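User: Show me a protein chain along with its predicted structure.
Assistant: Here is one chain, sequence first, then structure tokens.
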Amino acid sequence: MNENLIQAFRADAEALLSEVTTQPTAEEQERQTMLQEYHTRISTASDMMSRDYAIDDSLLAPILPRQGVVALVGSSDSGKSTLLRGLAMAVVRGDEEYIGFPLSPRTHRALYISTEDDEAAIARLMRLQVWDSERQNFEGLHFIFDTDNLLETIELGLQTYAPDVVIVDAFADLYTGPLNENNRVRSFLQLFSQLAVKYHTLFIFLHHTGKRTESLTPSKHNAIGSQGFEAKMRLMMELRRDPLHPDLRHLCIVKGNYLTEEYKHDSFVLRFMPDLRFEATGDRVPFEMLKERDVEREAEETEKLEMIRTLRDEGKSLQEIADMLGYGSRSSVHRILKRNT
């Protein structure tokens, strides 16, 4: 046989044998499919660091991020809704600042979910907040009053108009489960967090603080309900009235995952104007100075102290005084006396 034909035949056979032996097995093919699926869902650290992310990408710099889930909490008469409505209006107008912070909207659109006020009430309030010449400038501010199929409606708005911010007023009206169940609260908020990431927008939840919390220092723990609500928030602010001046409000950043400590210990003092606008004063007040005195409780403790001293002067023992005043033990009476010596 021709030597050239033999060599060609041998080369073809080796190529065919190599192709057969390198064919992946079913197990190897399954692994390759799994690896491809995995890499569509993750980002490597090297890829992340090579991308051109903005160092300070904020809606209201530096406190409100461009994207995520945050909360504003406070008592029912602190002006929370007015503050957030004012933010939405500033976004739509394209203002360069709001309450003293630089504002950087991209689309100049906002979506406001209102469960506490109806359309007529909101319209009346907004007329007070804007000048007559501004009333035609708010086509980009959309309100939702019907909360049936709410997530679907919100996503339609995000797909169509790409709002800079979505304000949810109020959380407790939408979440119908027990507020003290961490897992259920977190699962509910996760639905909104996923929308925030998917559409690169910011959700702000309005929520209420517990009764008598204004006698306490501003804190992320003052919000009604579970730790699950606070834990899900990237940032949490508390708005409270000034203890002495009825026209002042204190915006307190009680949690900020990406803020330095200088923002978290002193309030930002705002003036609440008669036209329902907020004006930055430039002042800051330490949180410790914002606790309201509980006059009723102080009076009650003073009365008990006087009774204890009177009974002591009459020769009663600490245990006898405790029994007479309804304390569980003599140590309670001792602590009251020690606090006031």
